[in-house]
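Narrative of activities, Objective 1.

The group set out to show that a structural description can be obtained from nothing but a protein's sequence at a throughput compatible with the screening campaign. Below is one input-output pair from the validation batch, recorded exactly as produced.
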Amino acid sequence: MMEDEGSTTRGDDTTRESPLPELDLVPMGTLCRAAECLKVMAHPQRLQIVDILMESQARQTEMTVNQIARLCGLPPHQACEHLRLLKGYNLLDSERRGRTVIYRIVDPRLPGLLTCIRRCCDIRNPQTS
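Output recorded for this entry:
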C-alpha cells in the first residue's frame, strides 16, 4: 500500500493530517541575526554596560571607559574587553579624545532589549509573577 503525501498509515487505519495553518513567522535570517545579538548580550556585565550607556544617553551625558568600569565594579581592562566586543558587533561606537575613550549606543535594538528585560525579568515588577 502506497502512502499519500499528508497521510499516515497505522496498520489498516489511514488518517489524513490536517493542512498546516498559514503562519506569519519571523524570517530565518532575522532569527539568525537576533540569535547572534543575544549571544553577544548574554552576559550580565554587558547588559549592565548597555543599561549604563542608555541611562547616560537619556541624560545627555557621556561615559568614559573608567566611569563605566567603576559603575560596573570591574577593572578597566575587563570593561574594555566587554566594550570592544559590543563595538565589534556594531552595537556601540566610540570616540577617542586624547587618552579618553567615550562610548555610546548606536544599535537602535538595544533599548528595546533592555526594556523587555526590565518588563519580563525584573523581580520587582509584579507582571513577572
